[in-house]
């Protein structure tokens, strides 16, 4: 009986209490421009990583793929830890090492026990400062990357989104794939990779972020010890400027009737990272929802488009997206369907866009806002997700935005704002389209363009 009483009295924290109880994210900028940020907690583990303002957008057609190649080389030994010694030292700590490259940023991060934080910071410093770039390792990784490129061609979702960037930002750096071309990977040299590091891995373009059971003061002390030598003494103004990328309404079609399913993405130009319209557009995407045949719920889902997809067997899956970059973005949806359902699915999806522009309701906005809140609080699960959030935000916004501020922005959204912002970006705009597979039923571009508005009498 006593146990039952204790269980009844024990209550979970409310949503508001959860936001108020989150520790403040501390940020310190070193003299060389390196930003050091941390979110302290009482967890026995932590994640620390470097987020760097570098990616395929900073590459030219001849060096496209250098950043992705460098990501592979980063874990293959340093001048202090040649060969596999680097990976073995990470493993001896029981830590987990990972990294990724995107169009505008590169990240390397390690998750380990809190007591090992100073050692992990030293390892990250060695990784970006003293990458060995041994010729034998370069040739080994070259073969691995070429094999990866072949495997990526079988992932039609990724292929579709690469085509979408290629047509939406044709002739600009955002049209590049992150992985680069096969020709580039075959001819990139050690000098090319060294030049990429020397150009982009500079302290003012880096954020050292950490989350978990660590002390901010100790993190700053470790950063001062290991991130103040060359190349981190760099203070010059010759950091390459971000190349401008202009959106173009156009299309790429890669028809292949031998494939079983059609992959189609349609997008308009969206806002950059710092634009406040992003919150409203994310609410709009939550209204549209997402669907996969493996989901439960069927036509009883709150998403009108999902209910239509189930009732009329329109697609295998669909998902809206809001992909942001520094000064532009792609706001759209992607779906996978049978060849004979392409036209019907496109019609219904564009109709849902028009409904958002003209008749979004308060009830569905309220539901969508709650969905965003749930996704926002989920960022608190685990140190790695929190660490990535801190590093990315400092690169994108120049500061870390606390969850309370995000909550205030979400709460301010209403149906009128959704209609106005969606009309601003969607209504009567020229879209970019990428389609792969058996797409004979996909209508002519001008017909799709004509469905970007409604003739109302």
UniProtKB/TrEMBL annotation:
Residue span(s) of domain Peptidase M16 N-terminal: 35-181
Chain ranges of the Peptidase M16 C-terminal domain: 188-372
Subcellular location: Mitochondrion inner membrane
Main location: mitochondrion
GO MF annotations, alphabetized: metal ion binding
Keywords from the named record: Acetylation, Electron transport, Membrane, Mitochondrion, Mitochondrion inner membrane, Phosphoprotein, Respiratory chain, Transit peptide, Transport
Membrane topology qualifier: Peripheral membrane protein
Top-rank taxon: Eukaryota
InterPro entries: Metalloenz_LuxS/M16, MPP/UQCRC_Complex, Pept_M16_N, Peptidase_M16_C
KW Mitochondrion (keyword) present: yes
Gene3D superfamilies, per database record: Metalloenzyme, LuxS/M16 peptidase-like (3.30.830.10)
One cellular component (GO) term of this entry: protein-containing complex
Pfam families assigned: Peptidase_M16 (PF00675), Peptidase_M16_C (PF05193)
Family: Belongs to the peptidase M16 family. UQCRC1/QCR1 subfamily.
Subunit organization: Component of the ubiquinol-cytochrome c oxidoreductase (cytochrome b-c1 complex, complex III, CIII), a multisubunit enzyme composed of 11 subunits. The complex is composed of 3 respiratory subunits cytochrome b, cytochrome c1 and Rieske protein UQCRFS1, 2 core protein subunits UQCRC1/QCR1 and UQCRC2/QCR2, and 6 low-molecular weight protein subunits UQCRH/QCR6, UQCRB/QCR7, UQCRQ/QCR8, UQCR10/QCR9, UQCR11/QCR10 and subunit 9, the cleavage product of Rieske protein UQCRFS1.
Name of this chain's protein: Cytochrome b-c1 complex subunit 1, mitochondrial
Organism from which the protein derives: Sinosuthora webbiana
Gene from which this protein is expressed: Uqcrc1
């Amino acid at each position: 009986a006593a146990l039952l009483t204790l269980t009844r009295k024990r209550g979970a924290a409310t949503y508001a209490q959860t936001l108020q109880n989150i520790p403040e994210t501390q940020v310190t900028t070193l003299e060389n421009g390196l930003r050091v940020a941390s979110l302290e907690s009482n967890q026995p583990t932590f994640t620390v990583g470097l987020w760097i303002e570098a990616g395929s957008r900073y590459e030219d057609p001849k060096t496209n793929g250098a950043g992705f190649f460098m990501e592979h080389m980063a874990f293959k030994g340093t001048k202090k830890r040649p060969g596999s010694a680097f990976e073995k030292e990470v493993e001896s700590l029981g830590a987990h090492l990972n990294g990724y490259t995107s169009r505008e940023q590169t990240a390397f991060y390690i998750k380990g026990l809190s007591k090992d934080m100073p050692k992990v910071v030293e390892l990250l410093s060695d990784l970006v400062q003293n990458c060995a770039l041994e010729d034998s390792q370069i040739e080994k990784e070259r073969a691995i990357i070429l094999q990866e490129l072949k495997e990526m061609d079988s992932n039609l979702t990724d292929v579709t989104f690469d085509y979408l960037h290629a047509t939406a930002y044709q002739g600009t750096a955002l049209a590049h794939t992150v992985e680069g071309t096969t020709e580039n990977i075959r001819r990139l040299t050690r000098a090319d990779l060294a030049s990429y590091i020397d150009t982009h891995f500079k302290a003012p373009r880096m954020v050292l972020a950490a989350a978990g059971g660590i002390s901010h003061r100790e993190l700053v002390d470790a950063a001062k010890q290991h991130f103040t030598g060359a190349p981190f003494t760099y203070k010059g103004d010759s950091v390459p400027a971000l190349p401008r990328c202009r959106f173009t309404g156009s299309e790429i079609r890669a028809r292949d009737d031998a494939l079983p399913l059609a992959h189609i993405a349609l997008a308009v130009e969206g806002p950059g990272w710092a634009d406040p319209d992003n919150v409203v557009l994310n609410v709009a995407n939550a209204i549209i929802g997402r669907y996969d045949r493996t989901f439960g719920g069927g036509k009883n889902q709150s998403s009108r488009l999902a209910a239509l997809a189930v009732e009329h067997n329109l697609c295998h899956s669909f998902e809206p997206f809001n992909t942001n970059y520094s000064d532009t973005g792609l706001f759209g949806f992607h779906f996978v369907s049978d060849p004979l359902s392409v036209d019907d699915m496109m019609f219904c999806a564009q109709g849902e866009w028009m409904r958002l522009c003209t008749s979004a309701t308060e009830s569905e906005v309220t539901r969508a806002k709650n969905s965003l809140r749930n996704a926002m609080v989920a960022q608190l699960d685990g140190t790695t997700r929190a660490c990535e959030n801190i590093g990315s935000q400092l690169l994108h916004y120049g500061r870390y935005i606390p969850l309370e501020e995000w909550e205030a922005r979400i709460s301010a959204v209403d149906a009128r704002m959704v209609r106005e912002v969606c009309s601003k970006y969607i209504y009567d705009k020229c879209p970019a389209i990428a389609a792969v597979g058996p797409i004979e039923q996909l209508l002519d571009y001008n017909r799709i363009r004509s469905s970007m508005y409604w003739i109302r009498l």
